[in-house]
């Protein structure tokens, strides 16, 4: 599949892969265990020059969707937490500004974000609203002269404890439509508190956000965000990235389990010689290969302008389900050693649970696909 990339794209993937193996892999378990973010890695990510690549509105040369998919896959293959950090900044935050901002707003924010001098977050999910957020968004925005006043709460907002700016989605009290606002970390009335006691993506700094009469200038309202359809357009693009991340997690699970199988001895020989062990490895490899084929085709549809909601929904639902199976089989193959960080797989088992749920649960994505397949909506 990687042969589908051109020479320049292959070189970019090679550079990113080397950075991940040399800088991220050695510290991934320690950061995850301590639930601490490795801020010293941000300059290294910046030097790679890949922030904002998925969006044609962002600075720099427009890459293929295949390239951005491989980058998401390789990041998750090493550390799903850091893949999530990067996806929130580059995909959700930069993507929202690129898709919904005016030319002036894109020029004001995106270059510094592309250099990762300013880090972004994306605030949509609420304490009482996840899958139903399109209809049940409770955070409000009220126009007051040259400002907007935001009130409400957000939850599970990645990067928000340290992000320089957060894209906050709120419902306009006047017309009832969902609009986007870029809120600085020092804005009065904006508070972000880290969520503790997570068992997945522990390196990611998720936050609870409270907005209390938070005043945002009209100039910081995303000019082209006029309804939830614009929010959904951003999510349509980033949802495919989660499917690619799921493939990366599957490949990691397979590689970890295979390495273990050819080294671990029981009953006088390596366990790779046992039929039931080979069965688990082949099922993992099958899941990863089938899912990779799906996301590759998804990338081709994106670049051909034939990409629809049901395509990304099917890929996200299918690939994350196969991922959940694969990490479980890897853990099974490694028995008790699979539940300690020393052997890596335990981190992927835990992180897979977060990927399975974020950017749309399997059930919600199933209903999106089902509506397209039958012509009948089955949403509540």
From TrEMBL:
Obligatory cofactor(s): FAD
Domain Acyl-CoA dehydrogenase/oxidase N-terminal: from-to ranges: 7-117
Family to which the UniProt record says this protein belongs: Belongs to the acyl-CoA dehydrogenase family.
Name of the protein: Glutaryl-CoA dehydrogenase
Enzyme Commission numbers on file: 1.3.8.6
PANTHER family, per database record: ACYL-COA DEHYDROGENASE, ACYL-COENZYME A OXIDASE
Native source species: Actinomadura algeriensis
Pfam families: Acyl-CoA_dh_1, Acyl-CoA_dh_M, Acyl-CoA_dh_N
Source species, domain of life: Bacteria
Residue ranges constituting the Acyl-CoA dehydrogenase/oxidase C-terminal domain according to the UniProt record: 233-373
């Amino acid at each position: 599949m990687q042969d589908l990339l051109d020479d320049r794209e292959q070189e970019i993937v090679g550079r990113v892969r080397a950075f991940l193996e040399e800088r991220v892999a050695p510290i991934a378990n320690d950061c995850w265990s301590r639930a601490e973010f490795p801020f010293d890695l941000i300059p290294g990510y910046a030097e790679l020059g890949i922030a904002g690549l998925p969006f044609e509105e962002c600075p720099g040369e427009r890459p293929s969707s295949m390239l951005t998919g491989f980058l998401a896959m390789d990041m998750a293959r090493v550390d799903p937490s850091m893949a999530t950090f990067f996806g929130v900044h580059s995909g959700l935050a930069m993507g929202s500004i690129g898709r919904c901002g005016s030319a002036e707003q894109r020029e004001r924010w995106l270059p510094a974000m592309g250099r990762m001098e300013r880090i972004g977050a994306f605030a949509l999910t609420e304490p009482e609203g996840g899958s139903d957020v399109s209809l049940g968004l409770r955070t409000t925005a009220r126009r007051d002269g040259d400002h907007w006043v935001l009130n409400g709460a957000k939850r599970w907002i990645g990067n928000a404890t340290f992000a320089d700016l957060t894209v906050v989605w709120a419902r306009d009290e006047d017309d009832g439509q969902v609009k986007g606002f870029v809120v600085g970390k020092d804005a009065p009335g904006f508070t972000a508190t880290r969520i503790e006691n997570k068992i997945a993506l522990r390196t990611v700094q998720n936050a609870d956000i409270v907005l209390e009469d938070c005043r945002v200038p009209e100039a910081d309202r995303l000019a082209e965000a006029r309804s939830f359809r614009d929010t959904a357009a951003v999510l349509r693009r980033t949802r495919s990235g989660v499917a690619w991340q799921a493939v990366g997690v599957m490949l990691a699970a397979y590689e970890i389990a295979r390495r273990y199988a050819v080294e671990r001895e029981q009953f006088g020989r390596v366990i790779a010689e046992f039929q039931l062990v080979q069965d688990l490895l082949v099922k993992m490899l099958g899941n990863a290969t089938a899912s990779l084929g799906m996301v590759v085709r998804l990338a081709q549809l994106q670049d051909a302008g034939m990409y629809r909601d049901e395509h990304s929904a099917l890929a996200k639902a299918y690939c994350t389900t196969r991922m959940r199976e694969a990490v479980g089989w890897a853990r099974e193959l490694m028995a008790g050693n699979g539940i300690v960080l020393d052997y890596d797989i335990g981190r992927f088992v835990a992180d897979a649970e977060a990927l399975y749920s974020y950017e749309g649960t399997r059930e919600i994505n199933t209903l999106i696909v089902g509506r397209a397949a039958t012509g009948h909506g089955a949403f509540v």
